[in-house]
Design goal:
Blueprint: H1 3-8, H2 12-30, H3 39-69, H4 75-103, H5 109-134, H6 139-164
Helix pairs in contact: 2-3, 2-4, 2-5, 2-6, 3-4, 4-5, 5-6
């Protein structure tokens, strides 16, 4: 399969939004102190925070389009902006799943936050793997993409550790 055929199956904009949502989820989790936050509040921080960023991102996209093109915004423009940015919410929902384990008594809030951070870092690592594979990059370049993607997530986790310890 040629590179152009392989990359055409991936919607770069939606992937960008999913990565953005994953990083936002990691940042939200980094701000949660497990000693003072219950699972429902933590879930709300991640999901409502993701939804707020989704709306803000769609709004900024629409306003930018209006200002730069001078074209009036239509209902279909609004729907397209909200739909195009939906992966931000999808990532937030995925990141919130480990918090549900606290609700049913599987583990503590501290463990849930660690699992949530692990989910986020893993997603970013998988994005690095996919980027290298789709681009048919050399193995050293693929490894570099994975390392850089993973490092982004680990940087957020390190900031969390620095803040809370």
């Amino acid at each position: 399969m040629e590179e152009g055929q392989q990359t055409s199956r991936i919607d770069g904009h939606r992937l960008t939004e999913f990565i953005y949502g994953t990083v936002i989820g990691l940042v939200a989790v980094a701000g949660i102190n497990p000693a003072h936050t219950g699972w429902l509040s933590g879930l709300a921080v991640v999901v409502v925070g993701g939804a707020a960023i989704w709306l803000a991102h769609a709004y900024s996209t629409l306003m930018s389009h209006r200002i730069t093109s001078g074209v009036r915004i239509t209902g279909s423009d609004i729907a397209a902006a909200l739909s195009g940015s939906w992966p931000i919410v999808s990532a937030a929902l995925l990141m919130a799943v480990p918090l549900l384990g606290v609700a049913i008594g599987l583990y503590s809030m501290q463990i849930a936050l660690r699992l949530t951070a692990t989910v986020g870092v893993t997603i970013l690592a998988l994005v690095g793997i996919a980027a290298g594979s789709v681009a048919q990059a050399s193995w050293p370049h693929r490894i570099l993409l994975v390392v850089l993607s993973t490092a982004l997530g680990l940087l957020v986790v390190a900031v969390k550790l620095a803040i809370h310890h």
